[in-house]
Amino acid sequence: STMPPLLSAIANAGRHGVLAKSAVVMERLGQVDLVALDKTGTLTQGTPRVTDIRPEPGSGLQEDGLLALAAAAEHPSEHPLARAVVQAARERGLTLAAATGFTSAPGAGVTATVGGRTIQVGSPARLVAVDGQDIGSAVQALEDEGRTAVLVRRDGTPVGVLGIADRLRSDAKATVAALTELTGQTPVLLTGDNERAARQLAAEVGITDVRAGLLPQDKVSAVRQWEDEGLCVLVVGDGVNDAPALAAAHTGIAMGRAGSDLALQTADAVVVRDELAAIPAVVALSRQARRLVV
Length: 294
Ligand code: ADP
Ligand code: MG
What we know:
- Helix content is 42%, strand content 23%.
- It has 294 residues and is α/β, with parallel strands linked by helices.
- The chain has helices spanning 5-15, 23-29, 39-43, 63-74, 80-91, 133-144, 172-183, 195-205, 216-228, 243-248, 261-266, 278-293; strands spanning 18-20, 34-38, 49-55, 99-105, 109-114, 117-122, 148-154, 157-165, 188-190, 210-211, 233-237, 251-255, 269-271.
- A seven-stranded mixed beta sheet has the order 1-13-12-11-2-9-10, sandwiched between helices.
- It folds into two domains: 5-45 and 167-293, Rossmann fold, CATH 3.40.50; 49-165, Calcium-transporting ATPase, cytoplasmic domain N (3-Layer(aba) Sandwich).
- It contains twelve helices and 13 strands.
- It is elongated, with a radius of gyration of 20 Å.
- The protein binds adenosine-5'-diphosphate (ADP) and magnesium ion (MG).
- Magnesium ion (MG) binds next to helix 3.
């Protein structure tokens, strides 16, 4: 063909299911030294399911009551964990009360008013004050099983915990191996989730460098530190919480299917066919294109 090499690289990337926003992206992808992968929705399928519902004994709530309350508050959220909570409530045929004043804190959770009471749903570490003894041990037990524990508070008081489990993408392990081969460095995991769940999952795909409990700006700091050391970092993510790191990195790629609008807008390229394996494929392509250009 008579197409310039970088343009034909964009076309080839499209065939692999990756939409590159410019020719420059294809050039940059070829320079990547280190890949930083997000966990929820990136390394995992992003369709987590509620596995445990544990109301706090003193709360007066049963399983259905706790789930309905959490789902009402989570309803406006596009986070994969929020979708899992709403889906579980639907499966039980629960009616959700209307929520007002919804706000979300990326990497932490959501707050809304439901039935005149303030409901918070999110990370036990970030919602602070896991004061109840029972709640604390319920959280730890779930995390020891590799689950994401999500705390529910009503007017500031913990009323229960939900356990949520997500599965690895089927091509996660092969993708980590291919990226290690291409860059000479094993990818690292950046996640807002708890350390126990993150490490268990990382071990299954051969990742040992795990940075857990990160807020969006902590992901940025990690990326900046590697880039200050002279590394070109590729960040792969899907969430609102990944957007700042996608923007800060040498190159950012968003997972398209479950990806939030903000992540899709911020990234330099989008994986439109929902396969993680497309990433090493386009990195390899850009390297070939660079050789042709040079
Ligand atoms: P990751 O970096 O793995 O994609 P996030 O940064 O999106 O994860 O979320 C980090 C943690 O914040 C979650 O494990 C959860 O505890 C909490 N969290 C964030 N958003 C929500 C939400 N909508 N509902 C419940 N928990 C949430
Ligand atoms: Mg994510």
